[in-house]
C-alpha cells in the first residue's frame, strides 16, 4: 500500500526541506481522524521520508530490518522509474543484499567504497540524544561498519522505538560474540554490570530446535537485559569492547545524524 505522506505533515511554524518537516521536536500536524495506522504503515512512512534524501550518484548504506526494507524497496522503485540514477548500495546484511539484488540495485562494499554518502536504517531504541540500540535483527556488526563509514546516517523508526534511556524498553541490548567459549564471554558481560543488575542470554532460534542464532559473520549474539539505567553509555561501551570474545555491541552512540519518527500525530525529524 502506498501511503501519501503529505497529508501527514503541517508546514505551519516549521521549515520544509524536500517535503520533510525540519527541526521540530514534536509533530505539529493535526491528529489523523480516520483509521489508526498500523506499526508497519508508520515504518513505511518514515522510510519513504528518508529516501527523499537520496540523490543520484550517491553511495547508499542499505539497512536491515522491517523498516529499512521499505526504504530499500522505495530506492528500487525510484531506480526503476528513472527518478534515481547511478546509485551504489552497500548492504548491511545478507538478507538486504538479496533484497537489493532482486530489485536491481547495483551493489558494492566498503572495500571499494570506504566512504558512504548516506545510510538509512531502522533501530530498536532511540534515546533523546539520538543514541541507538540496534541489532535485534542480528546485523549489528555490518550495520555499525557501514553506518560508521557514512557522512550522513538517517534512522527511521515508528514512535514505539523512542525511550528515555537505552535499555529502557525492557528488551535486549545485543552483543555479538565469538562462539568459542561463549558462556565464559556471557558471564564476563554480566559481571561487568553487576552493580545495576544484568542478565545475559544467548540468542537462539526456536524454529531450529533452540540452536544458537548465528550471525552473517558466523558469530553468536548474547542479549543483555538491564534492571536499571546503564548511565554512562560511553564507559559501558568501552568496557564491553575490552572484553575478550566480544566482537561488537548494539549501542550506536553518537552515530545518527537524523532520526525520522513516524507516529499517529505525524512525522518528526530530529537532527543532531
Ligand atoms: O538493527 C536492526 C537489525 O540488526 C534493525 O534495524 C532493528 O532491529 C530494527 O528492526 P525493525 O525495523 O524490524 O523494527
From TrEMBL:
Q: Which organism is it from?
A: Nepenthes gracilis
Q: Which UniProt keywords apply?
A: Isomerase
Q: In which pathway does it act?
A: Carbohydrate degradation; pentose phosphate pathway; D-ribose 5-phosphate from D-ribulose 5-phosphate (non-oxidative stage): step 1/1
Kindly give the InterPro entries that the UniProt entry links to this protein.
NagB/RpiA_transferase-like, Ribose-5P_isomerase, Ribose5P_isomerase_typA_subgr, Ribose5P_isomerase_type_A
Q: Which top class of enzyme applies to this chain?
A: isomerase
Give the family, as the similarity comment puts it.
Answer: Belongs to the ribose 5-phosphate isomerase family.
Q: What is this protein's record name?
A: ribose-5-phosphate isomerase
| GO BP, one annotated term | pentose-phosphate shunt, non-oxidative branch
Please give the superkingdom of this protein's source.
Eukaryota
Q: Which GO terms describe its molecular function?
A: ribose-5-phosphate isomerase activity
The catalytic activity, as recorded, is:
aldehydo-D-ribose 5-phosphate = D-ribulose 5-phosphate
Give EC number(s), comma-separated.
5.3.1.6
